[in-house]
Amino acid sequence: MITDMGTIIITVTAMRTNFKLLLCILAIAVSSSCSKEQVGDPYILFEVHGKVADADGNPIPGIQVLSGITDAQVTNSNGNFTFFGRSVPSATVILTFEDKDGDKNGGEFVTKSQEVSLIMKTSGSATGNFKGTYYADQVTVVMLAKKLDKTDTDSGLIPLSSTDTIPEEEQ
């Protein structure tokens, strides 16, 4: 009886091992027949080089450069940045520039979003999801100091301060 039970246990163990081996072979066969480009949405890789400056043309260091789906980069001491990203296929990308360090970089600046036109560098796959690499060089971004930005972003109107006067013909 013990011998029969031992034979059953060995047979069941061998079947489990064979089943696991079969699953592994099947998984390898399926994954090797599918390339990574066949999974997901079409995309491009892009690279943007530029400079962030204030209204007087002075470089602004420490500005975060963001795109919705990629890690932020920070402008260097000369206000220059290089941004690498991944996006849906498009001839433009929108970058957002944020002053995260307060007045440490020479003032506080208003967050700005800017659409950047891209130029194709290399084309991608005609049948896969990778559609190519794109770039933009010498992008210039001018950020306004918070104290100079008097535009009410909700209404588009410029608010009046208590020292402003309205000419009599407009009253």
Write the layout of secondary structure elements.
Layout: H1 2-33, E1 43-53, E2 63-67, E3 70-74, E4 80-87, E5 92-99, E6 112-117, E7 119-123, E8 130-142
Parallel strand pairs: 1-8
Antiparallel strand pairs: 1-4, 2-3, 2-5, 5-6, 7-8
> How much helical structure, as a percent, in the residues?
10-25%
Q: What spatial order of strands do you see in the largest sheet?
A: 4-1-8-7
Number of strands: 8
| Overall mean pLDDT | 76
Order of helices and strands: HEEEEEEEE
Number of helices, where a helix is a run of at least 4 consecutive DSSP H or I residues: 1
CA radius of gyration is 29 Å
Poorly predicted parts: 26-38, 155-166
Give the terminus-to-terminus CA distance: 109 Å
CATH topology of the largest domain: Immunoglobulin-like
Question: What do we call the CATH homologous superfamily of the largest domain?
Answer: Immunoglobulins
CATH class label of the largest domain: Mainly Beta
Strand content: 35-45%
Using the alpha-carbon principal axes, give the shape.
elongated
> How can the largest sheet be summarized?
4 strands, mixed
Structural class: alpha+beta
Tell me the count of domains.
2
What CATH architecture of the largest domain do you see? Sandwich
